[in-house]
Write a structure and sequence with these properties.
Blueprint (H helix, E strand, L loop, with lengths): L11 H7 L17 H10 L5 E8 L7 H5 L2 E8 L18 E10 L5 E2 L8 E2 L2 H23 L6 E7 L3 H12 L24 H11 L6 E7 L2 E9 L12 H6 L6 H7 L18 H6 L1 H4 L3 E5 L5 E2 L15 E5 L5 E9 L9 E8 L4 E6 L12 E12 L2 E10 L2
Parallel strand pairs: 6-7
Antiparallel strand pairs: 1-2, 3-8, 4-5, 7-8, 9-10, 9-11, 12-13, 12-15, 13-14, 15-16
């Protein structure tokens, strides 16, 4: 991730905590370059372990620049493992893989294409024709090597994903490689440039996820990533795809997108400074208090009284129903849908995205909690709205990010 939340501190541990993974599950960052995302995927498919690859990126450029218009922000997660071993991210039962890795190849070469110095607020790029002359022969070399390593002929490839931040080179490479594939140019997957934009580190995972969501059993998918060299990975979709249903399909997320006012976008990117509400900014959180409440704060785990079934949010030692002490079991709530029972719109309290919409949410199966709503138009919120939980940053103080859970419309 070229734009991580922290330097020095490992960012992957926050995801580790939010997913409630066992402490013996290693968490590492692979950041600093756009190629980091596909690099992590290459390392995972070559590993014998079950690996969760999470790639995220925030792209942009100077106001009104081509980079600002052509780029976007996204995150993608891919679970890599063997049949019966992968399971879900929380340690659930294993299942069949939906795409089998057949093989691939990576070709690297040092040349100046796109770069950014630490502390810079934008990346810079060399003249496009130069990049095209470098990427096309590298792409041919990686493509041919990958097909040979995987034992696959080009005309067996049904879906071709070509991605990279160099638009001209990617377009030319897609046209060249597609000519030998099963359906020629019809095999080339939409790179989502018109709806999402080029999202750098996360884009290979994003496009692979979107392609798998619409794939059919037996199809061979080729993922080609052109950045500081070319990486090619080949997958065959298995029969298990028939039972696969993405919780939040990429196509559905795009269809449910909402417009973001340009002024608010510039404010969120710290390009312009808006006058904040005339209220004190929040203090930094306590590391020691946060550490004692990791399961609640980061994984959104409540407690349920074993004897009465009473749900406590936040977790409690003493049950409000019967008074039992220390007789609780964990009650994970991050995937539970809720209903807005009441709400208020606060235009005075400090927020990086005013106004704040607070709602009292009744969760299916029990439990009530006041939470902040996000991804909503304050004027359209109403009692009875259905919401789902999402892990977000509340604010940053003294360089420490305060992460917790907010509610957003369940679409």
């Amino acid at each position: 991730m070229p734009a991580p939340a922290y330097l020095e501190k490992t960012n992957a541990t926050t995801i580790h905590a939010a997913l409630r993974l066992d402490s013996n599950v290693a968490a590492f960052d692979m950041g600093g370059a756009v190629r980091s995302g596909v690099g992590a995927l290459v390392a995972a498919v070559r590993s014998r372990d079950t690996v969760l690859v999470v790639a995220s990126d925030i792209r942009g450029g100077l106001p009104t620049s081509a980079d600002e218009q052509a780029t976007g922000d996204s995150a993608a997660a891919l679970l890599i493992g063997d049949d019966g071993a992968a399971g879900d991210a929380s340690g659930g039962a294993g299942g069949a893989v939906i795409a089998e890795y057949l093989g691939g190849a990576s070709i690297s070469e040092e040349f100046i294409d796109r770069w950014k110095l630490p502390g810079d607020d934008r990346s810079k790029a060399w003249e496009e024709k130069f990049g095209e002359t470098k990427y096309l022969p590298l792409g041919d070399q990686a493509w041919n090597a990958a097909l040979k390593n995987a034992g696959v002929e080009a005309d067996q490839v049904a879906r071709l994903i070509v991605t990279g931040p160099h638009t001209r080179a990617v377009r030319a490479l897609a046209g060249r490689l597609s000519m030998g594939t099963k359906n020629a140019k019809d095999s080339v997957v939409d790179d989502l440039a018109g709806s999402v934009g080029q999202t750098g580190t996360a884009h290979p995972g994003l496009l692979l996820s979107a392609t798998l969501e619409a794939a059919e059993a037996g199809q061979v998918i080729a993922l080609v990533s052109a950045v500081d060299g070319v990486d090619v990975l080949l997958f065959r979709v298995t029969d298990a795809i028939a039972g696969y249903r993405a919780a939040r399909p990429v196509a559905a997320q795009i269809a449910n997108a909402a417009d973001l006012p340009y002024g608010k976008y510039l404010s969120w990117r710290d390009v312009v400074k808006l006058e904040p509400p005339r209220r004190p900014e929040p203090d930094r959180i306590s590391a020691s208090v946060a550490s004692r409440n990791d399961d609640w704060k980061l994984a959104f785990v409540a407690s349920r009284d074993r004897s009465s079934g009473a749900l406590h949010m936040p977790p409690a030692r003493v049950s409000r129903d019967g008074g039992a002490i220390d007789d609780m079991e964990d009650a994970p709530m991050s995937e539970v849908i809720g209903t807005v029972a009441a709400f208020t719109i606060d235009r005075i309290a400090y927020s990086p995205s005013p106004p704040i919409v607070f709602a009292v949410v009744d969760f299916d199966g029990g439990g009530r909690l006041p939470v902040e709503l996000c991804d909503v138009d304050a004027a359209s919120v109403k009692v009875g709205d259905r919401v789902e939980m999402t892990f977000r940053r509340l604010f940053t103080a003294d360089g420490i990010h305060n992460y917790f859970w907010k509610a957003r419309p369940a679409r």
